[in-house]
Write a structure and sequence with these properties.
This protein is mostly beta strands. It folds into 2 domains: about 80 residues; about 230 residues, Peptidase G1 (Jelly Rolls, Sandwich), CATH 2.60.120.700. It is about 0% helix and about 55% strand. The chain has a 17-stranded mixed beta sheet that branches. The protein has a 4-stranded antiparallel beta sheet with strand order 4-2-7-8, with no helix packed on it. A two-stranded antiparallel sheet has the order 1-5. The two termini are about 15 Å apart.
Length: about 325
């Protein structure tokens, strides 16, 4: 859940759980900007929280210049019967759905390109994508190589830039390519998917539903950009040596992506909603989302991005800090 506190004249704020029992599982103790007069803080409560009504006490601290003041606040949690405890990741937030036996042959979904708060995070970024494979199992091994496609949104010198791409990893040489001649604007409706074709090859496709421009990649052939309404595209590169054997997970992810070997600071992307999620396996069945498939970004003990519980329409991912 998210606690909202209104402030007056404070520059930075934070919330600390106090008292007994402490039912909070994850709560960033870092100071956050609240100079706009509103402080938002995401809180994760324990999965074993079962009372009909629970109350958690906090100390709310506000800095006014060199002076810090605090006041006690309480949060009442009603009708609780178990709260989802999501898996944690250094860089992925969203949903990872495992197949039970046979490989997944298609996954797709839609979202809207977010407006980053480049004032809050002037040199930062986030990627939104759909993929198959790439998940490591707790018992060892993985769900296969990761084939993915989507959009990277980044703040460069305080200005937002957007670009569409596809990637197969691991691969040698590394196949990770941005499409050119594919302008994307904040607020554009996007759709992305990974599919196995009838001849056994694989296709990634990212569509700007607002402009009608699409980016394709077909293994063993080529990749490029064309009109969404056209069955062909203008080649921007070849994939004649590229093959893919499928995977056992489907993903819809907001990622704190890596650039030049290190993670880029995660941009304040607000909230991104994934919808029209489709997933099929060779058996003809589908796998609905469950809370146990969710994952959140936690770095150095700080929660940065949090998925919502799934609904019939999909789910959302919310930036939570620091």
């Amino acid at each position: 859940m998210v606690v909202t506190v209104r402030t007056n004249g404070a520059m930075s704020c934070r919330l600390i759980a106090v008292g007994r029992p402490v039912v909070v599982v994850k709560l960033s103790r870092a100071w956050k900007h609240c100079s706009a007069g509103i402080y938002h803080q995401a809180i994760i409560f324990g999965a074993n929280l079962t009372p009909t009504v629970a109350v958690q006490s906090f100390r709310f601290y506000a800095r006014h210049g060199a002076i810090s003041i605090w006041r006690r606040v309480s949060v009442k949690i009603k009708g609780v019967s178990g709260v989802a405890a999501f898996a944690t990741s250094e860089n992925w937030a969203g949903y990872i759905v495992p197949a039970t036996a046979l490989p997944i042959f298609s996954a797709s979904g839609q979202w809207t390109v977010p407006a980053l708060n480049c004032t809050d995070t002037p040199s930062a970024g986030a990627s939104e994508w759909v993929g198959i494979g790439g998940q490591g199992w707790a018992t060892g091994g993985s769900s296969g190589d990761l084939l993915q496609t989507g959009v990277t949104t980044s703040c460069v010198g305080g200005t937002q830039q957007n670009g569409a791409w596809w990637e197969l990893m691991p691969s040698n040489p590394n196949y990770a390519n941005y499409f050119t001649d594919f302008p994307i604007s904040t607020g554009d409706a996007m759709e992305a998917g990974v599919y196995q074709l009838a001849d056994g090859s694989w296709e990634t496709r990212v569509d700007d539903l607002t402009t009608g421009v699409s980016g394709w990649m077909i293994t063993g052939a080529s990749w490029g950009v064309g009109a969404d309404s056209s069955p062909t595209f203008t080649e921007q590169g070849l994939t004649t040596d590229l093959s893919y054997s499928g995977g056992y997970t489907a993903e819809w992810i907001v990622e704190d992506y890596t650039s030049n070997g290190s993670e880029t600071p995660l941009a304040n992307f607000g909230t991104i909603t994934f919808s029209n999620l489709l997933i099929n396996v060779l058996s003809g069945s589908s796998y609905p989302l469950t809370a146990s498939d969710g994952t959140e970004i936690v770095q150095k003990g700080v929660l940065l991005a949090l998925p919502s519980l799934p609904t019939s329409g999909g789910f959302s991912v919310r930036y939570t800090g620091p």
